[in-house]
Design goal:
about 140 residues; Ribosomal Protein S5, domain 2
């Protein structure tokens, strides 16, 4: 499936704890700044996927947690075409709520750009399940 448009459907999200666990335990690339850590692992899907971990311990106020999630989803939606097939997990660190919306968008956009550059320098491993390429499915 080729990504068309700039939507953010369920297929572009990490939904289950097992998907998050794989990225945490076996990340291929990492990039970070003072407020965030972005982990990535090459996947066998046809598009990148995003998972968000914004804990109450790191960002106290629900309004701030929701803002971070909203801005990150928007940055991912706009830049998904630049990314290889990665599973991304964003972790918020203490102090992430001190950024305003514009700073947040710039910081998260830069993290995604850095991850795209890092991942493009690395060659994705061959399929982890088998060595044969999968046929594209028409959905």
């Amino acid at each position: 499936m080729v990504i068309q448009g700039f939507s953010y459907p369920k297929t572009l999200r990490l939904l289950h704890s097992s998907e998050f666990k794989v990225v945490f335990d076996q990340s291929d690339c990492k990039t970070s700044c003072r407020e965030f850590l972005l982990l990535a692992r090459f996947n066998d899907k046809t598009q990148p996927r995003l998972g968000l971990v914004i804990g109450k311990k790191s960002v106290r106020r629900a309004v701030a947690r929701n803002l971070i999630k909203r801005v990150m989803r928007e940055q991912f939606r706009l830049r998904q075409h630049e990314l290889p097939t990665l599973d991304l997990v964003l972790l918020a660190r203490r102090g992430a709520d001190s950024l305003d919306s514009a700073q947040l968008a710039a910081q998260l956009g830069q993290l995604i750009a850095d991850m795209a550059a890092k991942a493009s320098r690395r060659r994705p491993p061959t399929s982890r399940k088998n060595d044969e390429p999968q046929e594209p499915r028409n959905v």
